[in-house]
Amino acid sequence: MIKVVIIGSGSVAQHLIVAFRNAQKQENTVDLIQVFSRKKEKLWHLIDSTKVINEYDELLDADLYIIAVSDNSILEVTENLTFKNRLVVHTSGSFPIDELNDSNRRGVFYPLQTFSKNRGVDFRLVPICLESENATDYQILNRVAKSISNSVFAINSNQRKALHVAAVFVNNFTNYLYQIGNEICEQHQVPFEILKPLITETAQKIMVLSPLEAQTGPAKRCDSVTIESHEAFLKDENHLEIYKILTQAIQDNGKKL
Amino acid sequence: MIKVVIIGSGSVAQHLIVAFRNAQKQENTVDLIQVFSRKKEKLWHLIDSTKVINEYDELLDADLYIIAVSDNSILEVTENLTFKNRLVVHTSGSFPIDELNDSNRRGVFYPLQTFSKNRGVDFRLVPICLESENATDYQILNRVAKSISNSVFAINSNQRKALHVAAVFVNNFTNYLYQIGNEICEQHQVPFEILKPLITETAQKIMVLSPLEAQTGPAKRCDSVTIESHEAFLKDENHLEIYKILTQAIQDNGKKL
Ligand SMILES: NC(=O)c1ccc[n+]([C@@H]2O[C@H](COP(=O)([O-])OP(=O)(O)OC[C@H]3O[C@@H](n4cnc5c(N)ncnc54)[C@H](OP(=O)(O)O)[C@@H]3O)[C@@H](O)[C@H]2O)c1
Ligand SMILES: NC(=O)c1ccc[n+]([C@@H]2O[C@H](COP(=O)([O-])OP(=O)(O)OC[C@H]3O[C@@H](n4cnc5c(N)ncnc54)[C@H](OP(=O)(O)O)[C@@H]3O)[C@@H](O)[C@H]2O)c1
Description:
The structure is a homodimer. The first copy, chain A, is an alpha/beta fold. Chain A folds into two domains: 2-155, 3-Layer(aba) Sandwich (Rossmann fold), CATH 3.40.50.720; 160-256, ProC-like, C-terminal domain (N-(1-d-carboxylethyl)-l-norvaline Dehydrogenase, domain 2), CATH 1.10.1040.20. Chain A has helices at 11-26, 74-80, 135-148, 157-187, 196-205, 211-214, 218-221, 224-233, 237-256; strands at 2-7, 30-36, 52-53, 64-67, 87-90, 105-111, 128-132, 152-154. Chains A and B meet through helix 4, helix 5, helix 6, helix 7 and helix 8 of A and helix 4, helix 5, helix 6, helix 7 and helix 8 of B. Bound molecules: NADP nicotinamide-adenine-dinucleotide phosphate (2 copies). The site of one NADP nicotinamide-adenine-dinucleotide phosphate (NAP) has 22 residues of chain B, from helix 1 and helix 2.
């Protein structure tokens, strides 16, 4: 059994605890022996309270320490660790591996998904991006990751950064386009609900078609009559600017084909 | 039974034929008596070939004619109709009701979804936006729409235009953000597959949270360190420009709260 400790009690830490708990019911690869949380009671609904600690010197000997704290606290946490030469990884999409304190063997265990505290996630579908400094550590990370997910990838820090930037486009920016859709609906007293099946289908299409194949609409068709009428319709300067830039980009993209 | 004729044989026409066929198995509200297709054989896999015609003077007497042809042919089709004072609607998100030929009673039957010929759609989940010039016609449209969908709305031409513009943001522009995500992955040799669960979750979150509540990421957090590092990372001018504009918009939006 691989002994694992989680440090942190936020969204990612909580989803990892649940994922390891579920995995332990199925197979005996990983044993989650301890979780560090500044506020111990935060995790009592998820794990046996005797396993939750809030002092660094209480940390047990383990094969893997997963630090799932806010990006700007990762370094501080690694500096608080009193032991040396153990395998210590973080869960961040943007923190480079070589900025971790080097008293321990370093690695990354990045689950590429957007987690919220109140939403369940099927962790078996969450891609986990792994990085380590040596092959033996990679084997440990790989076994731990595969115990909770069907989708495990070796990703170096530069690739992880690319994924993190790409995730901003497909998640944060996409959500902001939903926000604009919502604003346009509110301005004209139509329920945003009407757009929801379209939002679902747009995301589902991409599971089977490439985005290039899935692209439709007035910009793709270079339908200048519709584009001009939409531009005349948009009274919000911000909506109009974004409409113009994305329309132009789709048209330029079409020309590249 | 309400007698319906469809004019057109593209994506929307074909999905409507299937939807009416399914509805007729359940209840006897609507009878699809005829379909007009310039190329008759295009529809033989979907409907009894005796019901498919390609001459306007073969059109039977019906309670409702649904014109599902390309936007720039709608007017031409209405002008080809030899009868008068019957209920004639189109399926377009952007064509105004009063630009239809006025020899017949006019209306709109706009299914707000993105249809592709090779993808099945559960029509019961497709919102249908209805408009008519009088209340009696609205009752007919409403009964026909409800026979195939659980989601039927009275939407005037101005609201329909708002929905169409909003649909461009949540569908066409969102798909283009997927395209950028894909390009960033390709440039750094990571599989776009890794982002797909995130794309799914981003769309699903919006079913239960407002876009404002669902917004996360460096722009929302005003995390200037991450934003600057992403901007330095993006070598493609077009990606960078879109990154900057959407980041700024999300930050400005946060300030409005
Ligand atoms: N959320 C996501 O969607 C997501 C996805 C992939 C990766 N990640 C990454 O996963 C990591 C954790 O993110 P999260 O979303 O779980 O964050 P979160 O929900 O905001 O939770 C942050 C956690 O960090 C702890 N913490 C902060 N400063 C600390 C310190 N100095 N010492 C000890 N603990 C400290 C907090 O403890 P208190 O509760 O005591 O304040 C809290 O448990 C980050 O690196 C993030 O980039 C997040
Ligand atoms: N696709 C969508 O996602 C969607 C969603 C909502 C609403 N709509 C609206 O639904 C309508 C149809 O769109 P679509 O996607 O089904 O289009 P489509 O797949 O491109 O098919 C267009 C159809 O129009 C026919 N047509 C074109 N010019 C014609 C003419 N002069 N006379 C007779 N038939 C003519 C074509 O016949 P041939 O096969 O003989 O060329 C074809 O059957 C449009 O108003 C569109 O805005 C589309």
